[in-house]
Amino acid sequence: MFDAGLRSSGDGAVVDAIGSFARKENQDAAGRLASISELVARRCVDDDRAHWACDQWDAAAAEVSAILGVTHGRASSEMMTAVGLRHRFPLVAALFTAGTLSYRVCEAIVDRTHLVRDPDTLAVLDRAIATDAVAWGPKSALKLRRAIDFWVDRYDPGAVRRTQSRMRDRDIVVDLLNIHDGVVEIRGDVSAADGAAIDRRLAVMAHGVCEDDP
Fold first, then answer.
1. Are 132 and 147 spatial neighbours (Cβ–Cβ below 8 Å)?
2. What does DSSP say about strands 171-180 and 183-189: parallel, antiparallel, or unpaired?
3. Which of these, 35, 34, 3, 42, lies nearest to 21 by C-alpha position?
4. Amino acid 50: pLDDT
5. What are the contacts of 37-42 at 24+ separation with CB within 8 A?
6. Sign of CA dihedral 134, 138, 16, 5
7. How far is CA 172 from CA 14, 38, 89, 169, 185, in A?
8. pLDDT for 134-182, tens place per residue?
9. Within 10 Å of residue 96's Cβ, how many Cβ atoms?
């Protein structure tokens, strides 16, 4: 029965169970990402295989995609979140592991801070966000982004401005007016997350055709 064995329990016990299962769900998600980050560390090493047509990241993403039953792009996104938590936000990752933060919040933190590069700034940002993020669960997607941007703007304002400027300038052009020999040029600027998804999707498409396809 889909009642978690609580049919005969009081209201208080049911509410407590909701909180307990939510924390366990966060802990399980943290464990999944920690495992993914370990796989990336083992698979994506810096050697001559980095120049293969299907690179190490793609190969690791294929493994993650298969075991999770998700798309290649979604697997790649989880890998980026996992690596970001492992190497850039250890204090946030610790809260995630404890079940205090949700996957949604941690994914947003990694995504909104990807332009911060300085290690010392990242360490300060990690401490500030880890302290503040415990109250971010109820926030809407927009308010969550603003809460993260507040701290990025305090310690690396250039990262926020560059992100906002580049996001305003996003554009895709399919140049149908200049077709040459049946080929058309596509160019544009998209968000980093969209760019990664497009890149991985095109790689999957390219490797899915017949070897004799021109």
1. yes
2. antiparallel
3. 3
4. 46
5. 37/79, 37/82, 37/83, 37/85, 37/86, 39/63, 39/64, 40/79, 40/82, 40/83, 41/86
6. negative
7. 50, 35, 33, 10, 11
8. 999 999 999 999 999 999 999 998 776 555 555 555 677 777 777 877 7
9. 26
Q: How far is CA 17 from the centre of its chain?
A: 29
Q: Give the type of residue at 58.
A: D
Residues 6+ apart with CB under 8 A from 98: 27
End-to-end CA distance of the chain: 55
| Overall pTM > 0.85 | no
Residue type present at position 158: G
Longest CA–CA separation in the chain, Å = 73
- Give me 202's structure tokens: 């095109």
Question: What residues contact 27, with CB distance under 8 A and at least 6 apart?
Answer: 97, 98, 99
